[in-house]
Amino acid sequence: MSRVNSYNNTKKTRTLLTTLFAAVFLTLPVMALAKNVLIETPLGNIEIELLEEDAPNTVANFLSYIESDRYNKSFVHRSVDGFVIQGGGFAMLDTEPSSIETFPPIDNEFNASNTRGTVAMARLGGEPDSATSQWFINLADNSENLDLIDGGFTVFARVIGNGMEVADAINQLPIFNGQCPFCELPVIGYSNGDDVLEENLVMTTLSIQSSFVMNAGLNDAWYDPLTDGQGFFITVFPELDVVSLAWFTYDTELPAEDASANLGDAGHRWMTALGTIEGNRAVMNIDIASGGLFDTATEVDHTDPVGSDGTITLSFDNCASGLVEYDIPSIDRRGSVPIQRVADDNIVVCEALTGE
């Protein structure tokens, strides 16, 4: 029996110009897109690339557990030295571990080998079509073992980036030898004789990472139609991997002449942010500026940045909509604003650049 087992994802003109823009941008190189999943752990993050061509049904099954939140508060429950780490079987319910509610078992789809860094589905020994929720990461080349048993164990993803460093670190944790299925349980900061608490477990948070990549087709004016009185100018600099954002506000009536220009107060008009692009998102530092006046005879040489206060996280899953998440400690304000384009003209350019 295998060592891996389980306990139980003008219109004519405008049309012509749009077509010409699309033709031009379609000649530019487009990055191949792949759907990834991020596994967050106390020891760092593990990003995996899903192998949809090799195991389409298995990938869909794995994503269904993420999308339905069935992996919520799950943890790595098995670690075998130099072999695998395994999760997706159990989650913390209140203060007790509980089996994850599973969907029906799926058919085996063995097409890729169980080499180091691949991610495969756990299943019952002797039952190739019994995989449900449990997954494992191969820490070594286990092909001579796992590829040959009962038609092979289905590989559906591979670890990318420095994720194997995190997987190896989890594998190096001390092991709590409790009653199986927790007889190979990796633990953090555990003292013998104590109860194993949630803080001692390798908790995991699984999230689907968008395959969308920020590009210059996002350069536009954006707004939220449900929150009147504000808007955003966004400019992407692909060659620099940088994006800038200007968040502007306005009032239907002018504020008092002595109104403060502090963040969030009447009279404040602009807030800018700059950050590095990481796929479909960027964490941006907010810059506060003062000194500029519109529609006034007052001469102002320039605006002076007066400091940084907080962050904005800008993210997009497609060319038509995005999300601005903000955290501004000085005024104790944090939240999110869904955004859409003021005009749709650049969508075709954006889609051409992303290969959609």
Relative strand content = 25-35%
Number of strands: 21
Low-confidence stretches: 1-34
Instruction: From the 3D structure, determine the CATH topology of the largest domain.
Output: Cyclophilin
Q: Helix count, per DSSP? A: 5
Per CATH, the architecture of the largest domain is: Beta Barrel
The whole-number mean of residue pLDDT values reads 83
Read across the widest sheet, the strand sequence of neighbours is 3-13-1-2-10-8-9-5-4
What is the approximate shape?
elongated
Order of helices and strands: HEEHEEEEEEEHEHEEEEEEEEEEEH
Please, how many domains?
A: 2
CATH class of the largest domain: Mainly Beta
Considering DSSP H and I runs of 4 or more, what fraction of the residues is helical?
10-25%
Radius of gyration: 25 Å
Structural class determined from secondary elements: mainly beta
Biggest beta sheet summary: 9 strands, antiparallel
Distance between the termini: 45 Å
CATH superfamily of the largest domain: Cyclophilin-like
